[in-house]
Amino acid sequence: MNPMATRPEPAHDAPQAWYRSRFGLCERSLNGGAAADVHAMRREALERFAAAGFPPADHEEWRFTNIDPIVRGRFVPVLRGELRPADAGAVARHFLPGVTSARLVFVDGHYHPGLSSPTHMPRGIRVGSLAAMLAAEPELLRPHLGLLAGGADDPFTALGTAFLQDGAVVLVPDRLALDLPVHILFVSTGAPDPFMTTPRNLVVLGKGARAAIVESYVHLARNVYFTNAVTEVTVGEDAVLEMDKVQLESESAFHVGSMLVRLEARSTFTANSVSLGGAIVRNNAAAVLGGGNAECTLNGLSLATGQQLVDNHTTIDHAHPDCASHELYKCILDGRARGVFNGKIFVRKDAQKTDAKQTNKTLLLSDDATIDTKPQLEIFADDVKCTHGATVGQLDETAVFYLRSRGIGLVAARDMLTNAFASDITNRIKIAPLRGQLDTLIHARLHEGRLSEGDAAA
After folding, report:
1. Are the beta carbons of 393 and 360 closer than 8 angstroms?
2. Is the confidence at residue 7, as pLDDT, over 70?
3. CB of 77 within 8 A of CB of 195?
């Protein structure tokens, strides 16, 4: 499947009609759950999606990303996740090694208690399945679920909300801390027909709370499926949160992930996103600095080979004074892969003393790889320090020559320099076992990329 193919205009109501029919089937499977508050949210989201449809080819936010394979796809929402016992070992290979932490495993979007390890938590901290909490303790989620994503002007978020079923919940009350990271692992299986999962994650930290979360998306078979994930994050006053996302979907899969974040006064939020898989990938990150002296850091690394397309869109809204934001997104492209980066920083009129920096760097390993990059600043305050920039280049041939003169082969020299480029992002991840996993995965993906281009002899 070529994501670069010309995208025809689909019939306007064809996808909406398909998903409306699927919604009816899902609704009948709820066994009384249609009376719950959350189902009203689903219905409202379905109507928003039906009214808007998927973004057209000339939509400003999507014009560099051909989503026609997703638009034309007829993805069936998974109503129940099932895993063959023989596949349990394959899932376990994606656990964080050497880390005794809470682990939530979801198979085709549904919680799998047998593979999960929700270890004992300090009193008051809640870590578990969204579906289970909606059934048993909906009052805990009512103030937060949909607060950030409910009015989002994005058809993919609306579609994900319409088919909201399960996902991870992490609730950390005031002045409590998670000493070990929470690992949220989403596993897509080898179902024969194209399917859709809609993970919905909710993370809420109270005043002075602390936590670290790893969010992983992996596959067991190279089949066609669509992951449409939405994560809502609220970081309370003086709270500190780091979230690391690893996307390793099937080479035939589609992934759209949206993270919506609100930071309160004096809070600190760091997100590190690494994308290695997927045929078409879109990562959306939107953060609102809703209190003074908040600090937001967004880092990203994308590695695409063959004909992959990876699109990173970020928005940071400086709504209060004395806040800081830092962005560093790097992209490595080989073969005929394509990358997109669009980063927006808004500085509102009253957000004086804003300090914002945004950088996008792309490494092209092939003459056929392309990148569309568009860093943006919109500043309405006059006492700010804001910078943005983008660079695109190839490996430094002088550095390659130097390494080769020391007896290092061409492929090894190029890999060393490429890994050094990538490590600027991975080294920012504080969880050492995760860094080790990523180093191994990046090396493997570079090797696979060379094989896919027929360069195995090198």
Report:
1. no
2. no
3. yes
Whether 434 and 214 have beta carbons less than 8 Å apart is answered as: yes
Compute the CA torsion angle 298, 109, 333, 92 (nearest 10 deg): 100
Q: Do residues 395 and 364 make contact, with C-beta atoms less than 8 angstroms apart?
A: no
C-alpha pair distances (Å), 81 with each of 111, 183, 190, 191, 248:
8, 19, 11, 10, 19
This prediction has a pTM of 0.93
What is the tens place of the pLDDT at every residue in 129-160? Answer: 999 999 999 999 999 999 999 877 899 999 99
Closest CA to 225 of 59, 17, 81, 39: 81
Q: State mean pLDDT over 305-324.
A: 97
Q: Percentage of residues in the chain with pLDDT exceeding 70?
A: 93
How far apart, in whole angstroms, are the C-alpha atoms of residue 358 and residue 350? 21
Assigned token pair, 175: 């002045």
